[in-house]
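Weekly puzzle thread! Below is a chain. First person to post its structure in token form gets bragging rights.
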Amino acid sequence: MEVLLAQIPLLDGINGLPKVRVQSKDGASAEVYLHGAHVTSWVPAGGTEQLFISPKADFKPGAAIRGGVPVIFPQFAEVGLLPKHGFARSLPWELIESRSDMALLRLEDSDATRAIWPHQFSAEFSVRVWGAEIELLLAVTNSGEKPFRFTSALHTYLKVDDVRAATVAGLEGLLYRDAAAGAVESEQEDDSVSFPGEVDRVYFGASHPLQLIQKSGAVRVVSRGFADAVLWNPGPEKCARLADMEPNGYLGFVCIEAAAVREPLILRPGEAWQGVQKLKRLK
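Winning reply:
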């Protein structure tokens, strides 16, 4: 007999898209749209909004929301034959479980997904908040009869006062692929990364905690299950060409993504994988 758990009621989000709001006893909160399992807000207890959402973001079926935390699956960027960043971020997910401080959503294969990616899968995404922290967990199971490969990321847009005065620490000594410089590979020599213009880098083997630093405070980023980390900001010229961004929108965020890019993940029938990104606001 199936046990039905008490669910937090769904709310109407922008353009009527359903969302769920979770809040811990200490006041930490997050909002998650069923569209794309997309986290659009994270406010630590006693704090302020930590995620960037473009004022021009598209909140509509079939579109990707610009900002927050897009779920990238089963393809990162254009590394493959699928649409950029795959399809998970632009499809409706199902709310499986929710309580005051946590929500769990699920996406499974369908005729539409199998038409472009011929595999059976189940993906679950959970969001949990407490204190100064949020935990994002993506789990993928191969529910079919043949193995598949995929790349993935949690494309987290962290809000900053001015990207030109922000830095990211924790990547020193790592090899990275620089898409903004023709996909050349280099070693990170400095102890921090700044953002004087476009930055689009995949850092390989990024197992240590990262830290986004600015005058108003810092955010610690820890991941496991994801081998790589991505730093991204479009800079002024590329930002001006993005239809769902304001021309100066690049000033307001840094993307620090937990990612599996260089070595695709492989699941045999019945196997499962999970990756976690934890964010903590530091004083």
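Puzzle host: Confirmed. Bonus trivia for everyone else. The radius of gyration is 18 Å.
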